[in-house]
Amino acid sequence: MPSHLEKTKLGVLWSFVNQGGAQVLNLLITFILARLVTPDEFGTIAMITVFTGFAIRFVDFGFSAALIQKKEVNEQDVNTVFFFNLASGSFLTVLFFFLSPLIADFYKVDSLKTLTKVLSFIFIVTASSGVNKALITKAINFKLNAFISLAALVLSSGLAIILAYKGFGVWSILVKLLSQEIFTSLLYFIFYPVNQKPKFNRKSFDSMFKMGRNVAGESIVNYWSRNADNLLIGKMLTSGALGLYSKAYAIMMLPLTNFSRVIARVMFPSFSLIQDDIPEIKRIYLNATKVIAFLTFPMMGGLAVVSKEFVLSTFGPDWKEMIPLVSILSILGASQSILSLNGVIYNSLNKSHIAFRISLIFGLLNVIGFYVGIKLDGLMGLVIIYTTIGIVGAIPNFYYAGRLINISVIEILKNLSHSFFLTLVMVGLIYVFKLFLVRFEFTPILSLIILVTFGALTYLGMAVVLKVEEYELAKKLLKKNKAKK
Known about the structure:
Layout: H1 2-36, H2 39-55, H3 57-60, H4 63-69, H5 75-107, H6 112-119, H7 122-128, H8 130-138, H9 142-165, H10 170-191, H11 202-236, H12 239-252, H13 254-273, H14 278-305, H15 307-314, H16 323-339, H17 342-348, H18 352-392, H19 394-404, H20 409-437, H21 444-466, H22 469-484
Helix pairs in contact: 1-9, 1-13, 2-5, 2-6, 2-11, 2-12, 4-8, 4-11, 5-6, 5-7, 5-11, 7-10, 9-10, 11-18, 12-16, 13-14, 13-16, 13-17, 14-16, 14-20, 14-22, 15-16, 15-21, 16-18, 17-18, 17-19, 18-19, 20-21
């Protein structure tokens, strides 16, 4: 048990290094590209990725999760997943290559034909290293995972910036997407080689398919509940509107990608190893969600108040229509940062069918809401309805996940209450201070720095003075790390 706990702690640490480094780089790259590439060009690529992002889920079809969750993996399991991934990846590459005119016709954008054909090769590239990625996760070797991920990001981003500077516009974004997968796969083959052959074994396939299909089903439904908005915006509005929304959405996803998914990525293999110890899973889950809320609630609450300064100083005046979108979606981002850990409970306890059913219901509600929202008030209508459904839907989601580890909804909400009320106070103080700051007519970047510094000091100060549990927990973790060093 101590060895398992140690590996889990190191996994969380290296996942934060990976995700933190990736997000800092991605934000810098986004800010640079936003000055070189127009919202229309960002939106054009987003039109394609709506479909490729959906199809890529069929490359793996949940078999990687099955490999991670399975207590003992043999050679037949590895070979079968490798065979399935290569077969599905090759099929999707051919499919998208020849059906690219249909995507162009759907959006009525002729340039999508060539762009889609080139991007179609991402499927076979991703499929080739699927087993490597799953086994490195199962081994909780997130140090090597961080190195591979960050190295691929740096190389692909460098190519994108050079191309954007040279005036290649939309192609610079496409090259970043495709080259990042190519570099990632090459590095996995070099630093984490796996003895795998494309051999199919029916018994291994059947044993993993039961779980894999539920994971894939939940992933597919969840994908469309999150991306039907992009499809409808691209079809019903303009590529420029989609470019604005896609970037606002990416900002909303920051707490999920920086904290929640980092922890979830490590908790899944960790929970899978102790899936029979419900009290321990409950304890870890409550502590994890408490820490996530302590970090993400003030981040997103503060962003909602300083969205104007943030957008103008990072993206530039051409993106000013994104300001109200960021403000509203920040509220949804805070809620989603906690919900993402529920999927870990379902998958690690082999209850992925429950997650699939929940995702199906709320996926349908989201799609209907997206359509109604656009009809009522364009982008703003969609964002308001999306946020409303997301917040209201959190309660039943907490209920069903909590039941599996003996936690009530009241207990979960109480666990988050300190961070919620501290954030409310912080947001109010930032808003008042912002009104005072207006008279000095500072530049957006200077105003942003002042407001963020004020908000961070205010929030941390309240946490220290009140000695909230989340702050004390963070101090204990920090002391343990120093003691080990």
